[in-house]
Amino acid sequence: MIADRRVLILLDNAATVSQVRPLLPGGGDSLVVVTSRSRLAGLSVRDGAQRITLGTLPEPEAVALLRAVTRGYRPEDDGDKLAELARLCARLPLALRIAAERAASHPHMRLDDLISDLRDESALWDALSTGIDDEAEAIRSVFTWSYRALPTHSARLFRLLGLHPGAAFSLPAAAALGEATPSRTRQLLDDLVGAHLLEQTAPDRFQFHDLLRAYATDLAQAEESSDQRQAARRRVLSWYLHTADAAQTWLYPSEDHLPLPGPLPDVTPLVFTDYNAAVDWSEREQGNFLPAVRDAARNGMDETAWQLATILWFARPASSSERDWLELGRIGLEAATRREDQRAQTRLLINTGIAHRALNNFSEGLDALERAVTLARSSQSRFDEAQALNLMGLIHLRQRELDLADAHFGQAMSVFRDLGNGQRAATALSNIASTRLSAGRLPEAASVIDEALAAHRALANRGGEGNLLRIAAALRLEEGDTDAARRSIDEALDIALALRDHTREGFWLLTLGDIQRTAAQHGDALTSYQRSVMLHRRLGDRSREALAWRGTGQTYAAMDRHDEATTFHRQAAAVHRDLGDMWQLALELDHLASAVHPEDPETARGHWIEALTHLTPYTDPRATSIRSRIEALLTRAAG
């Protein structure tokens, strides 16, 4: 987006190099400014960054900051005394803000008295400090000075908030931690915001500065007993567990809920009035999901850890990548294994398999699902066994092992029907339709599409309905009915947008781009492929990102812009080769050969010959048709 522009990009408060690198422009004349308390040496070594070390504020600016915050709240203070206050704050902006807020909230207290209080606090910390980091000791003195001025209940909430899994939190989560009503908690939070110990970022949402969070955590360790700390953790994790369970009701209404004990006393989970409210909560809280699961496991709450990991699979935002969940799943699986809970292990292995499939980690996905099948059979859970078999079929489909895929889908569908689970049976039937379409068996695909679509609609399964509409659109396009194809894909994408599901939207946009390209709507097709690239890159699906590049190359070829077509096909071929996907590589080489043929027939011939070698293992009708076409092209070229 910015390769040809001059843009100033500010990345504020970066914690690691890995946070920065994906946001660096690939070229052009843009400038990136990164602020951090870490040195981020890797950016200097590998990326050519110029490091600028910032000192503390100069004394005049530190005094100016104090005056700016206190202006209008107290009489004009003496400049020398403000300079002394600034020195005690080590001229650090955060400490200066806290000190200024304290002075502003006590307009009738002499500045000499405030300075004396802070000097006494500093003397205490000087006596206890090692002298290694004067700035750290100075800012801790300011924190303590401000903390000790808090009312008792506000101070306790501040300590307990240091036990929250993440730096950002909501009013209801704070209420659970503090064993207080939301209205009382709001008053206490207002005290903390007024003292500049917390920042309010939105209505009913707050966050810590990371230094203050560390300070609050230290206070909790020092001033709360082990039992009190554990009880607070249990309350907030109970709130997350039951609120996530409520979100699942809207986000995945067809999925069975885990049987859970009721919320702990003084814990009031949220309830949601509609789908969007549940998604909003999930998107806001996503950054706390992994810390919450990790916190449960670290503090001996294995049952809570695996339950959270399981429910958060169904309560995470539809716009998130499966990669975001994998670490949660690993921690949850370890916790379930420690508890020797086979059903919990099976559930988590199944979700791990889904995540790996989405990320093209097919070997890891099959390994997890095979373990799930073994556990399901040992515990005689036919539903879990069928679910794992269906997912194994999806991996075989992505690897173009079509006979294996069809067999797994058939086994899964048979079990689901025996169990009376109509939705799962319809999902397996949809996968059978997709497998037959991929094989080029169009009449066999068409014969099951209508049945599966009717089943999903009867069950109000919007996601399943959209997937069938996407399959139907691809089928109609191959049959030459672009109008019917466009109606189906538009309906599918409306569903994806309503669900705020970037995975579905990105994948289904590929079919929209194909339809637009076939209809010679080249600009619209390029737009569809470009958004698909962006979404798949964000989701970490390199295979489907490369498919969007393929569509882009085909569109440029249709516009007789063969150089650009060649660039995109080469880019896509490199990804498929890197992923070891020989089927997609063969298709890409075929498109690449067509793009370079007008200018370089000999190079094109080499691409077609290589494509034939990769097509050899495949015997389905579509593969046979492509192989015959390429052989005919090579024969004509030789003649």
TrEMBL record:
Gene3D superfamilies: Tetratricopeptide repeat domain. InterPro entries: P-loop_NTPase, TPR-like_helical_dom_sf, TPR_rpt. SUPFAM superfamilies: P-loop containing nucleoside triphosphate hydrolases, TPR-like. PANTHER family: HTH-TYPE TRANSCRIPTIONAL REGULATOR RV0890C-RELATED (PTHR47691:SF3), REGULATOR-RELATED (PTHR47691). This is Uncharacterized protein. The lineage of its organism: Bacteria, Bacillati, Actinomycetota, Actinomycetes, Kitasatosporales.
